Amino acid sequence: MSTEQIAAAQAYVVALRTGDKQAAKVASAHLADEVTLKVGPREFSGHDGVLARITGVWPLTPVYRKTTWPAPTEVGDHVTVNAQMAPVGAGPTEVHLKFWFNDAGQISRVEQDNVVGTPLVETDKLPDFVKSRVDGALANDTPITVAYVDDEGRPRTSLRGSVQAYSDTQLSIWVRSSTTGIAVAVAKNPNVELLYRDNPSRSTLIFKGKARVETDGSIRKQIFDDSPEVEQNHESWEAGAAIIIDLSEVGGATPDGRVRMQVS
């Protein structure tokens, strides 16, 4: 295997990893006119079609940037690059590339295998890794977004730092006002949706369920006490309300696992 072929594979990897257009221009010279690219079940043919797949920013480009790719290695009649990704929620944990070349030393075929190693948990209860994300959301600077429908039928969203896992199938929120906003709205329309997003780790969790205001004094106190200290220090005990959300669906992915939860 010639040093030119190793350099060709390296140029391709740099373009794929960075999304940089100048890097793609360098890689372009190493692609044969008849080159083919196989990514999982999909196949792309021709110089321009393959070049387009390593030019610019694609959905997985931010993931590819988060690791140091090893140098290409000769294996028999082809060159390989096997990269280990930094832990992410939505994205592969490994990327395996194989390169073949024509007689002129240009890349004639590329096979790319993206390996998703994060386990999928199909369940009817909140997994511990989901609970920990919820409970630590505010401390992680990722307060959860809550969407609901107000009493006039208009969609509303708000950031809620007090969202906690209340049970295996429920979330709780301490809200600072019992007479406005979500505390009033859920009496008329209990349907809510919550979004947790941590961009650096590409973690996304979506929760769907029905919300209600809890009036039992001991439960109300528990929800207040379980909320983050900074929320308690807003001194909203008298004016606030405890909300419990009975979950029906949860879906998403974190570096600790993917989840698909359905509650019957």
Give your account of this protein's structure.
The N and C termini lie far apart (59 Å). The longest helix has 16 residues, at 3-18. The mean pLDDT is 93. The strands form 2 sheets. Strands 7, 8, 9, 10, 11, 12, 13, 14 and 15 form a 9-stranded mixed sheet that branches. The protein has a 6-stranded mixed sheet with strand order 2-1-6-5-4-3, covered by helices on one side. With 264 residues, the chain is an alpha+beta fold. The chain contains 8 helices and 15 strands. The protein has helices at 3-18, 21-28, 47-53, 61-64, 128-135, 182-185, 217-226, 229-232, and strands at residues 31-39, 42-45, 73-75, 78-84, 94-101, 107-115, 120-123, 144-149, 155-160, 164-165, 170-175, 191-198, 203-214, 241-254, 257-262. Helix 1 runs antiparallel to helix 2 (21-28). The chain folds into 2 domains: 3-115, Nuclear Transport Factor 2, Chain: A (Roll), CATH 3.10.450.50; 120-262, Roll (Pnp Oxidase, Chain A), CATH 2.30.110. A hairpin with a 5-residue loop joins strand 8 (144-149) and strand 9.
